Amino acid sequence: MIRNQTKAGFTLIELMIVVAIIAIIASIAIPKLLSARLAANESAAIATLRSISSAQAQIQSSAAVDCDSDGGGEYAFLAELAGTIAMRIDDGAGSPTLGGATDTLNPSVLSSFFGNLTAQGFVTRSGYNYMVFLPGPGAAPVGITELLLGGGATGPNNTEILWCAYAWPTQVGQSGNRAFFVNQEGDLLQMNNRTVASQYSGVTLPAYSAAYSGAGTMNLPIASGAVGFDTNTWVPVQ
After folding, report:
1. What is the 8-class DSSP label of residue 196?
2. Rounded to an integer, what distance in angstroms lies between the CA atom of residue 180 and that of residue 44?
3. Number of domains in the chain
4. Is 144 helix (H, G, I), strand (E, B) or coil?
5. CA nearest to 128, candidates 158, 89, 170
């Protein structure tokens, strides 16, 4: 006897049910995955700023940078800390100039990755941008950014005692949300970065004075638990 065999398949309704279930699962899972990635990037940014803070303390205490030859160590830019570019040295008149090939920091106190500067003077890593500011020349410590080829007209006396750094997302909402700040005091601040008008994302970066209580100089109090000069509220990282 020959039996008529047919293969059972999904009906259109069954397929629609399967697709609907997959869509529901995806709608739950994808936001959770994104949230987990943002949290991981933000945690990495906090850890990186702590590493930069430690590196700054090391180079300052070693007096590897001493542009006025007074024996007082100065803080450094990222590429100097990473040992990928020559440190600033005394030009013979107590002012900074770019050192030579033998004036790189060896061993370095940061990964060489931090020598990969953008044209704007920041480094991008794991969804966040990082920038260090040092005081410029003159009695008033006004922050200046890192030069792509090294050097920089820093003020030696103020650079012995002041520096600050910021971290902000490469794309807010996609690579991270919060922005972070640290300076020579070692206390990390954060702000939620939600206000579009004063938001930091990608090449929209904070000014050196963003997390300070006023404009003009880096020796002002930081805006810990208060509104900074950028109109954002900065609070300690818990």
Report:
1. G
2. 11
3. 1
4. strand
5. 170
Report the alpha-carbon distance of residue 130 to residue 168 in Å, rounded.
7
SS3 110: coil
DSSP character at residue 147: P
pLDDT of residue 15: 73
Cα–Cα dist 75/55, whole Å:
9
Hey, which residues does 182 pair with through a beta bridge? 165
Domain encompassing residue 98: 18-236
- Pair 208, 158: CB distance under 8 Å: no
pLDDT in tens, 101-133: 899 999 999 999 999 999 999 999 999 999 999
Report if residue 198 sits inside a domain: yes
Q: Is residue 2 part of a domain?
A: no
Q: Are 191 and 233 in contact (CB under 8 A)?
A: yes
Residue 235: CB atoms within 10 A of its CB come to 13
210 φ/ψ angles, rounded to the nearest 5 degrees? -55, -45
Q: Report the length, in residues, of the chain.
A: 238
